[in-house]
Amino acid sequence: MDQRNIEFMFYGLASAWVILGVYALTLLTRERKIDAELKRLRGLVENREETK
Amino acid sequence: MRKSIIILIALLGVGWVVWNLHTVLLQLPDDADQGPVYRIMFFHIPAWFSAGIAVFIALGSSIGYLITKNLKYDAVALATTEAAVAFLTIGLVTGSIWGRISWGIWWTWDARLTSALVCWLLYAGYLVLRTAIEEPSQRARISAVLQIFAFADIPIVWYSIEWFRTQHPGPVLRGSGEMDGAMKAAVYANWPALMLVAAAFVLLRLRQEEVKREIDSLRRIVHAG
């Protein structure tokens, strides 16, 4: 492969992967938060029904 | 949809992109003028195409919401727009890096680049707007209207290289500036691969919206009690 400006080819390819990775991480972090919130609320509702 | 199926779709997409990278890096020759940097195009073009499909679906879903008032359509519009913004960002960033070598500049205000940036701003604005409205049906209605307005920029982005003289190259998949067949095949092979990744993002985001609706109804039960 020609070595002219080869670093810019890697910057371009790496930037695409980084953007995909950052968005995937954002989604996974959000997923963890809403799963925890769902678990907490389900627990609250179950506790309330048990005490009735 | 089950999380394991979504992860499988994502892995298939990523695996396919990695396989295509092998072709792009090791099998295709360098461009005589640009050298190896032209290989950025194998991400740049499919990323724009994937974003285009995503905003088409978002437009259809927004119109679907306005007709039916079913919030599931709004969730589809949100999920596809988020994925579209991620792919539009890839398109803008990779294009700028390629331009630095091919044109000697990171950016220029020609018709294609400007309309593409406006496109990114409109869809990113859509996502920001959604965070500012609390009431779900009002948020869905206003967002759907903005989505239709934002889509008006898409034909301008698409045809700008034919309507105006631009720094950005003319069409490379058809016409007089057409790429070599093997290069074109690599562009078309990366498109469905990136679409699979986009599909995994959209399905995961849709699942999150579903869980959020369940959270909202549980909150109502907790507050009512």
Key attributes of the depicted protein:
heterodimer; A: 52 residues; mainly alpha; 1 helix; 0% strand; B: 225 residues
Write the layout of secondary structure elements.
The complex is a heterodimer of chains A (52) and B (225).
Chain A: H1 6-51
Chain B: H1 3-27, H2 41-68, H3 71-102, H4 111-132, H5 136-151, H6 153-163, H7 181-224
Helix pairs in contact in B: 1-7, 2-3, 2-5, 2-7, 3-4, 3-7, 4-5, 4-6
What does the largest sheet of chain A look like?
none
Compute the number of helices of chain A.
Answer: 1
- Overall morphology of chain B: globular
Total individual domains of chain B:
1
Q: What structural category characterises the helix and strand content of chain B?
A: mainly alpha
What are the secondary-structure elements of chain B, in order, as H or E?
HHHHHHH
How many β strands of chain A by DSSP?
0
Number of helical segments with 4 or more residues of chain B: 7
Class of chain B, according to the CATH hierarchy? Mainly Alpha
How far apart are the first and last residues' alpha carbons of chain A, in Å?
73 Å
Q: Which residue ranges of chain A are poorly predicted, with pLDDT under 50 across at least 5 consecutive positions?
A: none
Largest interface, with counts of residues having CB < 8 Å to the other chain, equals: A-B, 29 and 37 residues
Q: Helix coverage percent of residues of chain B?
A: over 70%
Radius of gyration of chain B: 20 Å
Q: How many strands appear in the DSSP assignment of chain B?
A: 0
Which fold name fills CATH's third level, the topology of chain B? Four Helix Bundle (Hemerythrin (Met), subunit A)
What is the mean pLDDT of chain A?
92
Order of helical and strand elements of chain A: H
Q: Judging from the principal axes of the Cα atoms, what is the shape of chain A? A: rod-shaped
What does the largest sheet of chain B look like? none
